[in-house]
Amino acid sequence: MTFVRWARVFSEGAPAIPFELSYIRKFEYTFRVPQALRAFKAEIFQALAHPTRIAVVEALRGRELGAGALGERLGLSQANLSQHLAVLRAKQVVVARKAGNQVHYSLRDPVLSDVLDLLKRYFYSQLRDTEALLGQLRAERTRRA
Fold first, then answer.
1. Is residue 30 pLDDT above 70, yes or no?
2. Structure pTM?
3. CATH C-level class of 44-107
């Protein structure tokens, strides 16, 4: 039995269109996704394009930390941390809350932690594939010797 969902393209006022669930991803990325969404995704990945910024996001997972505590936890100078936090604030990855003379940071949306978890799973999947390939190469080299 094929499941069918109905989609309404509100931006164009088109009537509801039936499509199979298996085509959702193709539909999303080839037919109707606005360029603005792709640009937004690119900006988020640009914000995460430095290992230190990823470390900041991981340190803020599920908690709020002051700038001093964050720098101490990551072993970063105040100036270096400030530059990375500025990028993350500009891309709206983190939010800042001022309390007296302290600034506390937290993730704007905790779902970003889920994205990093998915990337970690992707990394380990790639690592397993590479290890398997190396094992095959070693076995082939041993047979030749």
1. no
2. 0.69
3. mainly alpha
